[in-house]
Amino acid sequence: MSGRQVDRGRLADVVLAAVVGALGTAVAAFDDDTTALDLVLVVLASAALAFHRAAPRAVLAAATVLGTAYVVHAHPGPLSALPVLGAVHTAARVGHRGVAAAGGAVFLAGYVATGPGTQHAAERAGLLAGWFLCAVVTGLADRNWQAYLRQTEQRALEAERTREEAALRRAGEERLRIARELHDSLTHSISIVKLQAGVAVHLARKRGDEVPPALLAIQEASGEAMRELRSALQVLRADEPAGTPALLVERARAAGLAVELTVTGDERPLPRAVDRAAYRIVQEALTNAARHAGPAKVRVRIDYGTRNTTDHTTDHTGDRMGELTIGVDDDGAADPDRPPMPGTGLTGMHERVSALGGTLRAAPRAEGGFSVRARLPLGDTV
Questions:
Q1: Is the dihedral of CA 251, 254, 260, 266 positive or negative?
Q2: HEC states along the chain?
Q3: 98, 31, 102, 101: which is closest to 71 by C-alpha?
Q4: By CB neighbour count within 10 A (0-12 exposed, 13-18 middle, 19+ buried), where does 3 fall?
Q5: CA 75, CA 77: separation in Å to the nearest integer?
């Protein structure tokens, strides 16, 4: 879809340049004083508009120089300003207001300086000044409108994401409530049945009596029910990440995000809570980069630290107190002067890290882009 949009945009730029060039050459052809040099200047100034998306300032400079040279040499009418008007509009549209106004002023100066000093020429210059002002204003209005559309789309995506997260949170709370109810009711009752059946079997064997088969069946069935119930409770209480940070990076690359992963330190199994928090932090940071950073490069760094195996006071795994460091940086459009409002994702990251006694910093970088830094204490690996 993006490739088709690029092709359509390129085709529209070529059509714009062709239409402006056709109008300019048609008007110039009706002037008896038009020379081959004049036609070349008109064609080149119009052809430059085909590249206004890729290099708006360069196109403005080229159109201004060529258009001014044309009016200085041929003294044409107001329609000669069409290539420069188009370049001024597109430059203002991408935010180069000062450059756009300067380009229009240069062309007007050349037009006025070489025209005959009559009231008619002054009126033409005033008309052109109004056209250039309209080109700058409409360019700025279009820029603001596009920014508004992007913000509206971003808010809609954020609202949809918030709804999904709220639904998942409610589903998780409901699972925990069901797990508590099952634990408080069934687990207690089955435990009593199993205990009583076990005592009855023990007493019968102690007296030398034959244990009734029904009693043995009750003891076995109650034990099996306890095991099945524990498995069900583990499923209801499960909140395990479906993968690893490396898998998240591969998924992001497959989605078109330029991601680089670096792992340092002594990689080893992590405590369950730390592993789950690390996964969620990387997942949220990559999601935010994909949505807000634009066509940016993302660097993910995971540092496990150094494992100490020289001290005999360590546990059987050889791990001592340390920390896991996670860094996710992008070179996107985030501005330090305009920090983003914390959303549900950033708030959730802060809550996860705080619950583990760690620290988290998520903010725009001074050199541009966004940075997420998390430090998670490991404790003794279990």
A1: positive
A2: CHHHHHHHHHHHHHHHHHHHHHHHHHHHHCCCCCCHHHHHHHHHHHHHHHHCCCCHHHHHHHHHHHHHHHHHHHCCCHHHHHHHHHHHHHHHHCCCHHHHHHHHHHHHHHHHHHCCCCHHHHHHHHHHHHHHHHHHHHHHHHHHHHHHHHHHHHHHHHHHHHHHHHHHHHHHHHHHHHHHHHHHHHHHHHHHHHHHHHHHHHHHHHHCCCCCHHHHHHHHHHHHHHHHHHHHHHHHHCCCCCCCHHHHHHHHHHCCCEEEEEEECCCCCCCHHHHHHHHHHHHHHHHHHHHHCCCCEEEEEEECCCCCCCCCCCCCCCCCCCEEEEEEEECCCCCCCCCCCCCHHHHHHHHHHHHCCCEEEEEECCCCCEEEEEEEECCCCC
A3: 31
A4: exposed
A5: 7
Type of residue numbered 8: R
What is the token pair recorded at 29? Answer: 């052809």
**Phi, psi of 335, deg, nearest 5:** -120, 125
- Residue 151 is encoded by which pair of tokens? 């913000």
Q: What is the pLDDT of residues 335-378, one digit of tens each?
A: 777 766 666 667 778 888 888 889 999 888 888 888 999 999 98
**Residue (of 17, 76, 18, 66) closest to 42 by Cα position:** 66
- The CA distance from 87 to 111, in Å, is 17
pTM of the entire structure? Answer: 0.41
Residue-wise pLDDT tens digits, 65-95: 887 787 777 767 666 777 887 788 888 877 7
Angle in degrees, CA 135, 136, 138, rounded to 5: 65
